[in-house]
Prior knowledge:
heterodimer; A: 2 helices; 82% helix; 0% strand; B: 245 residues; mainly alpha; Four Helix Bundle (Hemerythrin (Met), subunit A)
Amino acid sequence: MFQFENFDAFIAMGGHGPYVWAAYGLSLTIMAWLALAPLRRQRALLAELRQRLQAQRQRGQS
Amino acid sequence: MWQWFHKLGSPRWFYHISGKFLPWLALVSVVLIVTGVVWGLAFAPQDARQGNSFRIIYIHVPASFLALAGYYVMAAAGAVGMIWKMKLADMVMVAAAPLGAALTFIALFTGAVWGKPTWGTYWIWDARITSMLVLLFLYIGIIALSRSFSTRETSARACAILALVGTVNIPIIYKSVDWWYTLHQPATIKMTGAPSMHPDMFKPLLVMILGFYCFYALVLLLNTRTEILLRESRTTWVKELAEPK
């Protein structure tokens, strides 16, 4: 059952709003970053490797 | 058995197999964590004494669990890498360090913002909290050490030794609330006996703990895969990944 009378009460958390939302907000942001950062890094690494291989081939041809 | 062990030690095989698990692991983690967060924030009953600040438990306890369990994962990987010279184990060790550091930070941060309305202070040098801070420094030490050597073998060895020595801190963290008089409350969940918590409050916590375990496995796999791409970039199979035919 929903524990709060309305949405404003939910945000206020009975006066503990800033603490609760700060804890959840920062933690979930860090966790999203933890999962997304390696994916971005992998894409960058593969792109870098692709460029290096292309550069090597061009040098080989000329 | 030995064939399996060798296969597991092959970065190429690991990269291939983990790629199949990743989407499922991601799906399960997101479903469990979203369910746990909504349940914990809006539907679990508030605590009679602490009011709504108690809802921070749904992040604080799972993050602390994985910060500690993650240290064992890192130290065990370091030991395997050192004893059997398994490269993949070294990569897992390096992958576990930043993840563990982030989870320890989350545990400390959520503890601080929970402490303010409950104890009246963000920080206190009590045994549990101080030993958790030592854990954070151990993780950061491993990250720094892994980047400060020019040869991979020396680096892996040094990190494994530091990780193994640091494991003495883990039982201290666990037992700190029993050994010393601390402000931090004793463990809510024990391996033996029923949890000292109402089932309506406990169920969302269980969902969050499971979610955090899946999330940990997910990020550990992702970080290990990054490490594999970095170290195996001269092999044909990684070149083929970069330039699919």
